Amino acid sequence: MTRSRASRGLSFLLLTIIALGLCARVGGAAAVTQAQVSSANEEILSAFAAVSVAERSGGNVSALDAKLNGAILLVQEAEDVNATDPAQAAADLQNATAAAQGVVTASTSVEHAGSAARQATEGTSLGAASAIVVVAALIYVFGGRVYRKAWLRVYRDSVVRPAHG
Amino acid sequence: MDKEAASIALALVTVLAVFAAIQPILPANNQPFSELGVLGPSQTLGGYPTSVVAGTPFLLYGYIGDHEGASGYYQLLVKVGNQTTLVSNSTYAQAPVILTYSRVLENNQSATFPLNLMLSDQGNNTRLIFELWSYNVTSSSFAYTGLWNQLLLNVTSH
Questions:
Q1: Most buried residue, A40, B37, B117, B118, by most Cβ within 10 Å?
Q2: From B141, which residue of chain A is nearest by alpha-carbon distance?
């Protein structure tokens, strides 16, 4: 009697484990939905908007663009393999979303670096232009006088003789 | 050199030097544009198929270029239309999309990529329409760039 009860309990336990395993397998292999694909695409679009802001600030966005293209490829791959390998499709979408979110995060620092670089460039350019104008004005006002003084200093020991003396 | 000539030379040199100094902060691209091209199976402007078999894949190549002065998020849409399908620089075709290719391009960057296509319905003068769309950050949507191309095909049963 006790042995039969133990055997029945063991069978129940085994069936439960098998059922849970099957459920988990079915759940893991569920095809990704169009809503999930759209959500990943929305993340990529948001990331592109962040990249555009960073670029307008003067940031170098080459690496961010490359990451976005990687995310786009992952979404395309997810759609391609969705019917045959749903688990891979889900992983691809997850990676694409993570990549897009990483681009959003990184674009903030690129934006700051771009702003700083642009300010430095603008400062240098405007400073150089101002300096050129100031130097030109100084040459215009004092150039003749300075040239004559320098000429006299260079030729002060020279003796002027008549050409046919 | 008299004083007047020296003054004119100084003014000229000053203007040129100031222009060179502010060059880095001047806008670089005054006439932004994008590019769209459709290439044959050998990635050249030629060798396009005139006839394909329904249900059989065939290969073309797409070419897009970004000269807008900034990065662009482009979508090349391939649509199947017929002789009556309207498409122009201002109107996109109201026809089913059979393939979408998405790509982010940097300024002054271009890309060539394969387009694996397949037509299921037979017919003469089937129009394969290629349209370039780009993402508009301000309106948060893709907008038709006005760039399009087409290929006329006879789709046969075998």
A1: A40
A2: A45
> Does some domain include residue B140?
yes
What pairs with residue B143 in β-bridges? B134
The reported pLDDT for the residue numbered A26 is 44
Nearest beta carbon to residue B14 from set A68, A132, A143: A132
Domain contains B75 = yes
Identity of the amino acid at B3 = K
Q: What percent of chain B has pLDDT over 70?
A: 98
Q: What amino acid is encoded at A81 in this protein?
A: V
Predicted structure pTM score: 0.77
Mutate to test the interface with A, among B104, B108, B142 (most CBs of A within 10 A): B104
DSSP class of B54: T
Q: What is the CATH number of the domain that holds B85?
A: 2.60.40.10
Global ipTM: 0.84
CB contact under 8 A, B18 and A133: yes
Q: Which of A49, A31, A46 is nearest to A85 (CA)?
A: A31
How many independent structural domains does chain B possess? Answer: 1
